[in-house]
Amino acid sequence: MAExxxxxxxxxxxxxxxxxxxxxxxxxxxxxxxxxxxxPLGTDTLIAAGVCERAAARLDDPPCVVLPALPxxxxxxxxxxxxxxxxxxxxxxxxxxxxxxxxDAQGFRKVVVxxxxxxxxxxxxxxxxxAEAGMLYLDLVRRRAAERxxxxxxxxxxxxxxxxxxxxxxxxxxxxxxxxxSKLPAVPVDMPAAMAAGLSDFPAMGMTEAYCxxxxxxxxxxxxxxxxxxxxxxVELILQQA
Length: 242
Ligand SMILES: [Zn+2]
Known about the structure:
- Helix 4 links the parallel strand 4 (110-115) and strand 5.
- Helix 2 crosses helix 7 (162-171), helix 2 packs across helix 11 (220-241) and helix 3 runs parallel beside helix 4.
- The model has no long low-confidence stretch (mean pLDDT 96).
- The chain contains 11 helices and 5 strands, in the order βαβαβαβαβααααααα.
- Helix content is 45%, strand content 8%.
- The protein is α/β, with parallel strands linked by helices.
- The protein has one domain (5-241): Creatininase (Rossmann fold), CATH 3.40.50.
- It starts with a strand and ends with a helix.
- The protein has a 5-stranded parallel β-sheet, sandwiched between helices.
- It has helices at residues 12-19, 43-58, 89-106, 120-133, 143-146, 151-154, 162-171, 178-181, 191-196, 202-205, 220-241, and strands at 5-6, 24-29, 64-66, 110-115, 136-138.
- It binds zinc ion (ZN).
- Residues 35, 43-44, 117, 164 line the site of zinc ion.
């Protein structure tokens, strides 16, 4: 296990030593978005940070530095619930561009964006912005990646359901209202079909409590396994392309 280097916790001289080895920056990107009545608003950011931390612990060559997370994303689908605090696509593009340039100037060999908020506008914006800025993007919704994840994730029909709630339980169980979670009925919503039909807010899709999927089935064990799979994918991307 390598020591996990977090940019915010390093001194400048310590970072200078690490920069001499041309490190990879791992940048968690999430959102402030309602995740059902049971899981916290920062769920996506927490998951992205958990993946970055695990990858940094696995890799020593190249060394990895976990950058401070970008906690805001493009968030419109949940706008009618308390806690949807989003930024525009233009702001997200600007953040990617500026952090890429700053990291490059400092001597990072590459920055990898690890995004776990999958609203289509967020994903599309990050794909384009990362390509333009020379950042790598861990693209989890591409079929080749999604095939390695759980059934609920593959179907793209979960939000704060079994997949995300399991990850939350693995790393921050104290932030999940478990007694409420265990009583939530499964809400089957075909999100890709709903989006294709032009629906763009959760209640219209049938998500009257800002979740779909089956949060009551979530377990910390499944979350820990999923974290390992996500970390495998990030490590592969770093070793192949960074
Ligand atoms: Zn989420």
